[in-house]
User: Fold this.
Amino acid sequence: MAVGNEDIRDFLNGVADALDREAWDEFLSMCAPEFEYRVTAYSYELDKEMVWLIHDMDGLRYLFDVLPEQLGRKGTRMLRQISVTDISRGEAKGHVDVTSKVIAVRTSPEGVSELFAAGRYLDVVDVANGTPRMIKRETRLDTRELGIGSHVPI
Assistant:
């Protein structure tokens, strides 16, 4: 069965929802075994790209295992709002390249919400088997000051 653009939008909203709920196993189940996650930003001061985080599936599993030990995490929640702006068939057969705008809002245990980050998701989604799975996500941030203590994927 062919995967249409609406299916891809629904899938990516489901990915964001799993991250919002901190349903790490569910998030990982939406990813292909070769999945790669990275966070990047452009530094105007340095006039070059910066890679802030890069993980494969094993790295993400380890990250999720140690998250409870991170300072400042207890009771803090993240909410991601995404808007898919472009869906195009990728260079590799059965792959779709998707660009989405993303805004992440962090809410403290006291209930104070603030903008955490803004940027874009640059996703590669495998649709060859009729069920979308993430192959690659680059979270390309406009925000360059995230503070300390956040290791949760944006």
Q: What stands out?
A: The chain has a mean pLDDT of 90. Helices lie at 5-20, 24-29, 57-66. The longest helix spans residues 5-20. Residues 123 and 137 are 4 Å apart (CA to CA).
